[in-house]
Each structure stands twice: as structure tokens, then as C-alpha cells.
Amino acid sequence: MSAIGTVSESAQTRVGLLDRRRIIADTDFNRWLVPPAALAIHLCIGMAYGFSVFWLPLSRALGHDKSIACPDMTLAQALFTTTCDWRISDLGWIYTLFFVLLGLSAATWGGWLERAGPRKAGVVAAFCWCGGMLIAAAGVVQHQLWIMWIGLGAIGGIGLGLGYISPVSTLIKWFPDRRGMATGMAIMGFGGGAMIGAPLANALMTAFRTPESAGVWQTFVAMACIYFVFMIGGAFGYRLPPPGWRPAGFVPQETAASTITSKHVHLHDAHKTKQFWLIWAVLCLNVSAGIGVIGMASPMLQEIFGGRLIGQPDVPFTALDATQGAAIAAIAAGFTGLLSLFNIGGRFFWASLSDAIGRKSTYFIFFALGIVLYASAPWLAHAGSKAMFVLAICIILSMYGGGFATVPAYLADIFGTQFVGAIHGRLLTAWSTAGIIGPVVVNYIREFEISAGVPRDAVYDVTLYVLSSFLVIGFLCNLAVKPLASKWFMSDEQVAALQPAAVHMDHHHAAPAAMSATVLLAWLAVGIPILWGVWVTLQSALALLG
Questions:
Q1: Fewer CB in a 10 Å sphere around the end CB: N or C, the chain?
Q2: How does pLDDT run across 18-69, given as a tens digit for each residue?
Q3: CA nearest 188: which of 53, 286, 46?
Q4: Is 263 exposed, middle or buried (0-12, 13-18, 19+ CB in 10 A)?
Q5: Average pLDDT per run of 10 along the chain, which is 546 residues long?
Q6: Reported pTM
């Protein structure tokens, strides 16, 4: 017996700090510690949305007060030049790489994440995202754009993908009774990352700025260090529930007509079902429409309303002087801030609502209401109803964010929870596709309308009608989603074979009071930055729109 005990103890000590078996929680673990861990990671990687704050300073990295422009420089030359400042269009490719790599890495390594566990995935995400920022800082110092593309765009993009999907499966398993709310909280963090990171970056660049430096590389280093602490803390905060665990009093509701299953589909089979591709299309079309609005929000408001934004209804956009143009651009910036708040709030609101009315019904609202709002937006614009137009676009953006937050729970309802993180990772290729479709459709239609001589206050009419048609198709795809046939589900024995044995090395039985204090501190750690970001955004939006 002694020899057996020694072997058992030796086997446990060989389990690594990041091993999936090591983070199986005790039965008394408080599940409300997991959402702030997920938020800690998502709030950091969500800064991807806010990197545009660096483009203007970086476009003057050599000239400082004024860019050293090289008009004939090609993109290939821009990657290696040390004597010309970068163009914003050259830097913007980093943003494209972010979301292409996010989708590709989530799809490629989603299966590995399910095997390795969320802690290991979260740690890898932290090293990739923060390490990418440090590499980018070296690129700024050396004035080598290719280094920034590799550091931020490629390596950072991989960190985005792994960080984005790392909490999905874990949260859904901890909150089978509130799947939408749980994933909504985490994915809300991704939408809110720029709300915190952008003003933080501006403050740091101001502090580090000197006559010889824009303060960008120092800001990259500082933010990488701050984010690394938060992301590692989040990764080590992840725990997995014991096999078969359920919240007290929770009884799964499953009927023959329900799309919610208690069974599980293997990752290798999910993409073989028509339900996967229908939900893929649902997400792609919802995001294509929403991302099109995000991309044109500021110029759309300015071109549609022109002088009406500053109390001069007789002055169209094309007749504004420089002072008037600056004034309406400032108002449009406030409008963009409001949209970010609705994008963030919609992620939590709609995902939580889906727990009550169902995921399919929630998407029914997204598409039905969205069709009405997109189609009526041109009429509201021509009627001069600024308040109603702004409200319509804000609601549209709330449903854009809500679509991201609701889809993981939708997948869990259809395919079960065993591989939902990996299945979600593959589904995110719909996001990468939408990131191309939406902006391309919007930009090309706008340019065609302008070249055809359409007045600026009407150039978005056709665009909004086309985006509305996207939602019609999405509505039909969502309507076609049905429960899976029994042939797709794994047997109980197959599921049991996938469950890791717990190695209780990180756990202890904490007193209820101590656990409550830990939960409070965890939520304060992520809640205070969120509240600060909301306050800064509201101040900007209210001051500009007032």
C-alpha cells in the first residue's frame, strides 16, 4: 500500500501547473469567480478595437509634428523604409491581420484548447498578445513596419483568437442555467476593451511624449506589462467544474421540440451538420450588416446631416468650411462613443435575455427588428429626425454585439457543451468573412453612388437597403435551424472517456466568508476599469452631443 501511495503522489507531482487536470474545482468552489477571470482576459485583448489611437502618432514617428511623406512609396517599400513615415493605410493592415488571425487561430487551435484546458490557453494567449506588443515596440524603435505586422498582427492575432475562445466552454459548463448571461459577460469585455484601452493609451502617450518621440513604443511596453498581469491572473483564475456538476436546484429542460440538448456532438462531426452552417450564416450576415455600420458610422452621420448637426440646416456637407467641418467631426466622434456603449451593453442585455426567451427567438428579434431599422433609417434621415436616426443606429449596434454574445450559447444548445469552445472557434471564421464582406459592400456602394452624382445626404440609402437584405437572408437561415438528429450525438461512454481525472493540488476548502471576499475582490479588479471606461466615454459623448 505504501508503494502504491508513493506512486500516486509521484504521478500527481508530475502534473504541470497548466495541466487541465489540475484545475478541476472542488464541489464548494464559487462559480462567480470564473466570469471576472474571463473578463480580465477579454478586456485586455479587446484593445484590438482601439488600436487606431496609435495610427496618427505612428504616421508622424519620424517627422513628429508633420509626417515625412513619400508619395510614390509602395506597400512593399513601406514595410522596410527607415526614412519615410508610414501611411495610415499601411498601419491599418495590422487591424485586418488582427481579425483574420483571430478567426483562423480560433478555428485551428480550438480542439487543442478543449484538450489542454482554459488555463494553458489563457497563458499562451497572454504571451502572444503581450509579447506581440513588445515586438511591435521594437518595430517602432527600429522603424520597421514588417516587425510590427509580425508582432502585433500575426503573433498578437493568434493571442486574440486563443484569448477570445478560452472562457467560452468553461463558462457554459459552469452556468448551464444562464448560458447566455455568462458568455455575454465575458464577450462584453471584448467589446469594452477599447473603451478602457484607448483613453489609457492616450494618457500614456501624453506622459511618454518627448520632442524626439511620440511615446508609442513606451506605451506598447507599459500596456504589455499591465495586460500581462491581468491576463495571467485571469488564466490562473479559470477552473473547470467536476464531471456531472450542476448548480443546486437546476433541472435541465429538454423536450422533443426543444433545440436545447443535454447530449454532445464531437468536434469532428459538428461541421458536417447543416445546423452548423446555418448558424455560421446567421452570425456572418448579422455581423456583415453591423460591421458595415460601424465602419461608416462617423462619415455617415456627417454626410447625411451636414450643417443640421450644428444648427445650420441650409448648409450641406459639401459646403461646410473648415471650422464647421471640425465641429461636426467632433459631434460624430461622440456618436461613435455612444455606439460603443450600445455595442457593449447589447452583448450582456441580449445574451441574458436569450436565457429567458431562447437563442432562436433572440436572433428572430435581431433580424426582424434589424430589417425594420435598416430599411427605415434613410426615411428618418431625410425627415431630419436626428434623435430617431441615432437611436435606430444605436439599437442596431446593440444587436451586433448581442449576436456575438449569444452565439456561443446557441451552439451549446444545439451541439452540447463538451466541444463548444472548439466549435465556436471554427464558427468564428464567419466573423473573418463578415469583416471583408461588410466594409467592401459599404465602401464600394458609397463610391459608386458618389461617382454617379448622388447627393451626399442620400449616398447611404442603397447601402442601408442592401444591409437590410442581408438580414432577410439571415432571418430565413435562423428559421431553418432545427434540433439535431440523434445519430450525431456521442454515447455516454464516449463522453465519459473524455473527462479528465481531477488532481487536487490547487484547491482548498475556503470558509464561506473568505470565498465571498475573494469573489468581491475579483469583481472589483475588473469592475473598476470598466466603470472608468464607461465614465470617460460618457463624458466624451455627452459633451460632444450636448
A1: N
A2: 888 889 988 788 999 999 999 999 999 999 888 888 888 898 888 777 778 8
A3: 46
A4: middle
A5: 43 69 86 94 92 86 81 89 88 85 92 92 97 97 95 95 91 90 89 88 90 91 98 95 83 58 91 96 94 76 80 78 77 77 92 93 96 92 85 92 94 92 93 84 81 83 92 97 92 82 52 73 94 86 62
A6: 0.85
Which of 280, 283, 332, 291 has its CA nearest to residue 440?
291
Q: Do domains 36-66+79-241+514-546 and 267-489 have the same CATH topology?
A: yes
- The crossing angle, in degrees rounded to 10, of helices 274-305 and 386-415 is 170
Q: What is the fold of 267-489?
A: Growth Hormone; Chain: A; (1.20.1250)
Measured at the alpha carbon of residue 179, what is the angle toward residues 488 and 167, in degrees to the nearest 5?
90
The C-alpha cell that represents 117 in the structure block: 484546458
The C-alpha cell that represents 165 in the structure block: 475562445
Query: Which residue reads 448560458 in cell numbers?
Result: 179
Q: How far apart, in whole angstroms, are the C-alpha atoms of residue 167 and residue 40?
A: 11
User: Domain 36-66+79-241+514-546: what homologous superfamily?
Assistant: MFS general substrate transporter like domains (1.20.1250.20)
Helix 156-165 to helix 420-427 angle (10° resolution) is 130
- How far is Cα 482 from Cα 497, in angstroms, rounded to an integer? 28
